[in-house]
Amino acid sequence: MGQELLAASTITARRLLVEPVEVDVRAYPYDCHRCGAPQIVPAVLNRTEQFDPFSVFDAAEGHLASVVAELLAIGFHPAASSIRVRRSAGSQSSYLSHGCQTCDALFGAFYLHDQFSDHAVQQDFHQLPLVMRTSMTELDWVLTEVVHNNSGLR
Ligand SMILES: [Zn+2]
């Protein structure tokens, strides 16, 4: 490997490991179907001020939901506790889900995927309430992107 190429690789590696990527957690406003309490459902993750299809992720469940939960927890945001494993009566299983901060009702992933699709069609993710602006390393963003792209969730 030539010296220039080695230097370029080192710079790339450093950028991946150290340089922060600014990201936003956005939420769907939702009145709980069980207790009626107005909620925010922090199920959208995007690169700050970027709303193209490659920069906005559906964090309704699974790894993306865990990334959002971690970002909110690091920032001491109260909504962090709304993302946890719950039993779904409909699917007869347990999964990492969004839910009500008042009564803990599960907000189903199918419903949230529909919300995501609707906003993708309307191209109005920027109008969703901003829950938190924070950052992750470039590497964490790239890994999140890889998981997202392999999950079939758009
Ligand atoms: Zn509730």
Q: Strand percentage, roughly?
A: 25-35%
The poorly predicted ranges are none
Rg: 17 Å
Bound molecules: zinc ion
Number of strands: 7
Number of helices: 4
| Outline type | elongated
Helix and strand composition category: alpha+beta
Mean of residue pLDDT? 90
Please trace the helix and strand order, writing H or E for each element.
HEEEHEEEHEH
Major sheet: order of its strands? 3-2-1-7
Number of domains: 1
What would your notes on this structure say?
With 154 residues, the chain is α+β, with helices and mostly antiparallel strands. The chain has one domain (20-144). 37% of the residues lie in helices and 31% in strands. It has helices spanning 3-18, 62-74, 109-122, 138-151; strands at 20-31, 38-47, 56-58, 83-88, 93-99, 106-107, 130-137. The chain has a four-stranded antiparallel beta sheet, with helices on both faces. It has a three-stranded antiparallel beta sheet with strand order 4-5-6. The termini are far apart. The model has no long low-confidence stretch (mean pLDDT 90).
